[in-house]
Specification:
With about 350 residues, the protein is of the alpha/beta class. Helices cover about 45% and strands about 15% of the residues. It binds pyridoxal-5'-phosphate. InterPro entries: ArAA_b-elim_lyase/Thr_aldolase, Low_specificity_L-TA-like, PyrdxlP-dep_Trfase, PyrdxlP-dep_Trfase_major, PyrdxlP-dep_Trfase_small.
Length: about 350
């Protein structure tokens, strides 16, 4: 199958598996796993931070960030579209007693500062205490501009808030902008990074921050059942991913751009071309049922996400031939339905 549903479907390569098999390991709860320690130091350095923490998932890394920045009864500002508001099971509220305060995202994925300002609660016993601003980059495949990040950082500082980045796909932003990770990370007090999406590791994310934050997060991680033992076997895959699979994200972006421009030629599809900045293409059927297209493609060995909109994600397990097959079969589907 050629799988365009998500970049989470990427599988560890043979070389990555060999490196995992050979990884030096120890008990990471004792701080003894050399492969985990190496990955955490390496990631902290890349981001220009003091420390990092290896976590079982991006959801866990975001939850640890929220619980380490905020206390019970605090709140965080985020986007209506934010992964750590919509797609993480309400974990901050359920497990952290932290209230989200979402605001509507602009079309470019940013959160307008005046909308955020209007939601900051005054110091009054009626209100939760606003502590944190959480952004996401990339968001829906879109890159937040460096200008916006600088403004958001200034805004957070001015209002006494910490600022966190859900950077599940921050390396897509870094590669697209030809900027080192640290240039993006410098605008934040903490960030999360997914190793298990386009970077191709089977498992794992990172939370990056200063020593004090990571010490708190390490305690919460243990409480949440995320203290792993010989985790070096997984960290080695993450290390391999960071050393080998970052720059090649540019190929995924090229493939997404090519896919979008080809699909945009079809009258039956409305492709959001200006939103195709990294590895995601969103398209809407002008009429008819996207599930019929999904079914047609699945019968030909191609998987896509189809609801109101189609979401097509490129990654290291789909090459240009696979993209061409998707284009050809999509064209054939619409031709046979005309
Ligand atoms: C995937 C994703 C996460 C969560 O990662 P999991 O490892 O699936 O828990 C968080 N934020 C964003 C933006 C994501 O895309």
């Amino acid at each position: 199958m050629i799988d365009f549903r998500s970049d989470t479907v990427t599988r560890p390569s043979d070389q990555m598996r060999r490196i995992m098999a050979d990884a030096q390991v120890g008990d990471d709860v004792y701080g003894d796993d050399p492969s985990v320690n190496r990955l955490e130091e390496y990631a902290a350095d890349l981001a220009g931070f003091e420390a990092a923490l290896f976590t079982s998932s991006g959801t866990q890394a975001n939850l640890l960030a929220l619980m380490s920045h905020c206390q019970r009864g605090d709140e965080y500002l985020c986007g209506q579209q934010a992964h750590n508001y919509r797609f993480e099971g309400g974990g901050a509220a359920v497990l952290g007693s932290i209230q989200p305060q979402p605001v509507e995202n602009d079309a470019d994925g940013s959160l307008p500062l005046e909308k955020l300002a209007a939601q900051i609660k005054p110091d009054d016993i009626h209100f939760a205490q606003t502590r944190l601003l959480s952004l996401e980059n990339t968001i829906g495949g879109k890159v937040l501009s460096q200008d916006y990040l600088a403004q958001a950082q200034g805004f957070a500082f001015e209002h006494g808030l910490k600022i966190h980045l859900d950077g599940a796909r921050v390396f897509n932003a870094s590669v697209r902008q030809q900027l080192p990770l640290s240039a993006i990370a410098q605008h934040f007090d903490s960030l999360t990074i997914c190793l298990s999406k386009g970077l191709g590791a089977p498992v794992g994310s990172l939370l990056v921050g200063d020593e004090a934050l990571i010490t708190k997060a390490r305690r919460w991680r243990k409480m949440l059942g995320g203290g792993l033992r010989q985790a070096g076997i997984l960290a080695a895959a993450g290390q391999y991913a960071l050393e080998n699979n970052v720059n090649r994200l540019a190929e995924d972006h090229d493939n997404a751009g090519y896919l979008a421009s080809e699909l945009a030629q079809l009258d039956e599809l409305e492709v959001a071309l200006e939103q195709v900045q990294t590895n995601m293409v969103f398209a809407r059927l002008s009429s008819g049922d996207s599930r019929a297209l999904q079914h047609h493609l699945a019968q030909r060995g191609i998987l896509i996400s189809a609801a109101n909109t189609l979401r097509l994600v490129t990654h290291l397990d789909v090459d240009r031939t696979g993209v061409d097959k998707l284009i050809t079969e999509t064209k054939a589907f619409f031709a046979s339905n005309r």
